[in-house]
C-alpha cells in the first residue's frame, strides 16, 4: 500500500475526530457560552447539515480542478473551521466554524475514495479504500476519547486546536505523497443527477437518514445522559466513547462481511436490533454496567448498517457512483442533524435525558419499514421483468404500459 494512503487516513482521522468529539464536550461548551445542552446540540446539527450541503457541492466543484488540489483545498477548509471553533468568542461564531469544517467532510471521503482506488492495482482497490476509512473508525477509538479527555482537563478549545494541527499534518501529507491526477473530463451533471430519479436510490438514502439517525439521537446526548442518569463521573465519558468506537469498528467489519452475501437480510437484522436496543437504552441508562454494554451495542449495530446502506445506494445509482457516494455521506449526516435536533426538542420539552433514545428507536424502526418496502418493490419489478422476458416473441414486441 502506498504512503499516500497514510496521508488520506490522517485526514480521515482528523475529520472523524472533529465530527464526533463534540458530543463528549457538550456540557463544557454549553457552560462556557452560557447556553443550554439542547442549544449546544446545534453544534452537532450544524456540522451535519454542512456535510449534507457540502458533499454534493464540493464534489461537483472538484471536477474543475485536479483531485489532489481539491483534497488540499478541502483540508484547508477543515483547518480553518477548526481554528475558528478553537478561538470563537461567541457560540454563533463557533457554530460557524463547525459549518466551515463540515464542508470538507463528504467530498473528502467521496474524492478520497476515488484517489485511493487509483493508487493501487485493480485487485487491491477495496483494500485501499478501506485503509483510508480506517482513519475514520480509529478516530472513534482513539481520537474522540483522547480529544474528550483533553477537553475536559485542559479545555475544549485546546481539543479543536489539536484537531486543526492534525489537519495540517494531513494537508502536508497529501501535498507531499499524493501524486498529481488530472481532473475528470466529460462529467455531465445532468446525467449524474438522473440517477436520483430512481425510486430505489431515494429509498436507500431515506434508509440511511433514518437508520443512522437513530444512533445519533442517543449518542449526541451521551455525556449528560451518562453523568446525570447513570451516575458516571465526567471523566468516564471518555472510556464510554471508547466502547462506542470499538462497537463501531466491530459493526463496520461485520456489516462489510455480510453485505455482499445477503444485503437486505443484513439490513433487516441490524436495523431491527438497533431499534430494540435503543428502546431498551431508556431502561439500561439507569445502570452503569448495562449502559456501557448498550453503548457498545449501539455503536456495533449502527455501523453494521453502513456498508450495506452504502452498497445499496451504489448498486441502485448505476450512472453516478461518485456523486451518489458523496450524497449518501450527506444522507448519513442529515440523519445526524435530524436526530440531534429531535433529541434536543424532547429534552427541552421536559421528557428527560433518556427521551432521545425513544426518538432513535422510532427512527431506526422507520428505516426498517422502508427496507421492507424497498425489497417488496424490487421483487415486484423483478416479477414484471420476468413476465415480460418469458412472453412470446409477439408479446415481447408489443409495447408494455405500466
Helix/strand layout:
Elements: H1 4-33, H2 37-40, H3 42-61, H4 67-87, H5 91-102, H6 105-118, H7 125-153, H8 156-177, H9 189-194, H10 199-219, H11 222-230, H12 236-259, H13 263-284, H14 288-304, H15 306-316, H16 321-348, H17 355-389, H18 393-397
Helix pairs in contact: 1-3, 1-6, 1-7, 1-8, 3-5, 3-6, 3-16, 4-5, 4-6, 4-8, 6-7, 6-16, 7-8, 7-12, 10-13, 10-14, 10-15, 10-16, 10-17, 12-14, 12-15, 13-14, 13-15, 13-17, 16-17
Q: How would you explain this protein's 3D organization?
A:
The chain is mainly α and 402 residues long. Helix content is 82%, strand content 0%. The chain has helices at residues 4-33, 37-40, 42-61, 67-87, 91-102, 105-118, 125-153, 156-177, 189-194, 199-219, 222-230, 236-259, 263-284, 288-304, 306-316, 321-348, 355-389, 393-397. The mean pLDDT is 85.
Question: Gist?
Answer:
The protein is mostly helical and 402 residues long. The chain has helices at residues 4-33, 37-40, 42-61, 67-87, 91-102, 105-118, 125-153, 156-177, 189-194, 199-219, 222-230, 236-259, 263-284, 288-304, 306-316, 321-348, 355-389, 393-397.
Amino acid at each position: 500500500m502506498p504512503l499516500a494512503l497514510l496521508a488520506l487516513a490522517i485526514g480521515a482521522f482528523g475529520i472523524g475526530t472533529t465530527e464526533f468529539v463534540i458530543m463528549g464536550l457538550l456540557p463544557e461548551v454549553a457552560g462556557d457560552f452560557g447556553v443550554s445542552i439542547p442549544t449546544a446540540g446545534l453544534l452537532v446539527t450544524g456540522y451535519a447539515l454542512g456535510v449534507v450541503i457540502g458533499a454534493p457541492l464540493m464534489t461537483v466543484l472538484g471536477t474543475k480542478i485536479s483531485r489532489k488540489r481539491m483534497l488540499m483545498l478541502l483540508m484547508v477548509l477543515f483547518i480553518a473551521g477548526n481554528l475558528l471553533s478553537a478561538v470563537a468568542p461567541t457560540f454563533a461564531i463557533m457554530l460557524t466554524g463547525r459549518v466551515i469544517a463540515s464542508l470538507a467532510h463528504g467530498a473528502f471521503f467521496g474524492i478520497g475514495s476515488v484517489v485511493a482506488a487509483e493508487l493501487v492495482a485493480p485487485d487491491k482497490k477495496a483494500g485501499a479504500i478501506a485503509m483510508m476509512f480506517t482513519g475514520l473508525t480509529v478516530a472513534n477509538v482513539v481520537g474522540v476519547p483522547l480529544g474528550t479527555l483533553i477537553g475536559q482537563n485542559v479545555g475544549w478549545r485546546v481539543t479543536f486546536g489539536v484537531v486543526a494541527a492534525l489537519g495540517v499534518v494531513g494537508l502536508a501529507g497529501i501535498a507531499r505523497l499524493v501524486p498529481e491526477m488530472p481532473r475528470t473530463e466529460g462529467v455531465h451533471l445532468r446525467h449524474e443527477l438522473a440517477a436520483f430519479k430512481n425510486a430505489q436510490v431515494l429509498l436507500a438514502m431515506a434508509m440511511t437518514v433514518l437508520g443512522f439517525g437513530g444512533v445519533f439521537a442517543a449518542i449526541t446526548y451521551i455525556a449528560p445522559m451518562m453523568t446525570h442518569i447513570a451516575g458516571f463521573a465526567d471523566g468516564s465519558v471518555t472510556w464510554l466513547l471508547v466502547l462506542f468506537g470499538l462497537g463501531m469498528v466491530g459493526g463496520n467489519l461485520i456489516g462489510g462481511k455480510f453485505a455482499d452475501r445477503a444485503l437486505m437480510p443484513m439490513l433487516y437484522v441490524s436495523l431491527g436490533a438497533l431499534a430494540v436496543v435503543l428502546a431498551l437504552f431508556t431502561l439500561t441508562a439507569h445502570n452503569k454496567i448495562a449502559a456501557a454494554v448498550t453503548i457498545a451495542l449501539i455503536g456495533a449495530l449502527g455501523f453494521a448498517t453502513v456498508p450495506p446502506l452504502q452498497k445499496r445506494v451504489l448498486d441502485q445509482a448505476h450512472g453516478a457512483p461518485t456523486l451518489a457516494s458523496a450524497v449518501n455521506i450527506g444522507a448519513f449526516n442529515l440523519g445526524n442533524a435530524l436526530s440531534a435536533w429531535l433529541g434536543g426538542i424532547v429534552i427541552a420539552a421536559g421528557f428527560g435525558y433518556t427521551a432521545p433514545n425513544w426518538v432513535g428507536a422510532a427512527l431506526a424502526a422507520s428505516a426498517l419499514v422502508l427496507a421492507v418496502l424497498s425489497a417488496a418493490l424490487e421483487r415486484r419489478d423483478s416479477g414484471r421483468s420476468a413476465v415480460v422476458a418469458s412472453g412470446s416473441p409477439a408479446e415481447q414486441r408489443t409495447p408494455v404500459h405500466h
